[in-house]
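Budget justification aside, the reviewers requested a transparent look at the raw inputs and outputs of the sequence design task funded under Objective 1. We therefore reproduce one unedited record. The lines immediately below are the structure tokens for a 238-residue chain.
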């Protein structure tokens, strides 16, 4: 992994970031999955580079309104899509170079996703998420509520799949009792097999709590996919 770079323009109140990340996915069966995310970022709580580790468990369930087969950016193996996904997890993070003196955080989070197939094999999804956070050396408690809408579509040619997507997400923060941050992301995931995928996106983020409220980030993600042996093969199509 490489570390992120930052450019700040005081005149325009804008920062430009590079956020590299590695995501590891481990499928237990067609419904249950474990994952770990490891991004390098510069979030607004910190003046230096940060490193975060996310540990998650997912449970997918329920049919979609119409049968829908695709890989999705976080699946990479063609399968019949389930209509709902519940996720829970834990994140820990700290600022680099000063061993967490500038920024530390522990967070528990929970999400629920609803996936809705549209005409033209387009997938629309809602995600509602709650973050329970302890930030700083004195571990001050706060929480966030987040709502994301997303549109994605898969294009395939043989073993190659490209999935462009866009999403928008506001953040309500208990520290301010209002929506303090809004994030918009556009990007795509590229893969040629079941084990590795590459994702790139451009993130725009507005956060009025920071002295440079406008943030642009180039996010590059390496996805690695694994699965438990004896997974029910009938749940997948190849």
């Amino acid at each position: 992994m490489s570390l992120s770079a930052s450019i700040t323009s005081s005149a325009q109140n804008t920062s430009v970031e590079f956020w590299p990340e590695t995501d590891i996915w481990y499928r237990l069966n067609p419904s249950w999955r474990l994952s770990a995310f490891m991004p390098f970022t510069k979030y607004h709580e910190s003046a230096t580079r940060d490193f975060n580790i996310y540990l998650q468990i997912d449970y997918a369930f329920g049919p979609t309104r119409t049968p829908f087969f695709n890989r999705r950016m976080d699946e990479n193996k063609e399968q019949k899509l389930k209509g709902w996904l519940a996720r829970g997890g834990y994140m820990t993070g700290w600022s680099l170079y000063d061993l967490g003196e500038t920024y530390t955080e522990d967070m528990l989070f929970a999400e629920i996703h609803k996936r809705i197939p549209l005409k033209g094999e387009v997938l629309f999804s809602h995600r509602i998420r709650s973050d329970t956070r302890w930030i700083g050396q004195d571990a001050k408690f706060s929480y966030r509520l987040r709502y994301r809408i997303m549109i994605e579509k898969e294009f395939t040619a043989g073993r190659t799949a490209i999935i462009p997507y866009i999403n928008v997400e506001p953040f309500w923060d208990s520290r301010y009792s209002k929506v303090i941050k809004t994030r918009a992301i556009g990007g795509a995931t590229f893969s040629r097999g079941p084990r590795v995928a590459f994702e790139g996106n451009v993130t725009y983020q507005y956060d009025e709590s920071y002295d440079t409220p406008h943030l642009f980030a180039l996010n590059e993600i390496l996805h690695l996919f694994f699965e438990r042996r004896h997974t029910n093969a009938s749940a997948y199509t190849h």
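The radius of gyration is 18 Å. The longest strand covers residues 104-118. Computational costs for records of this kind are itemized in the attached budget.
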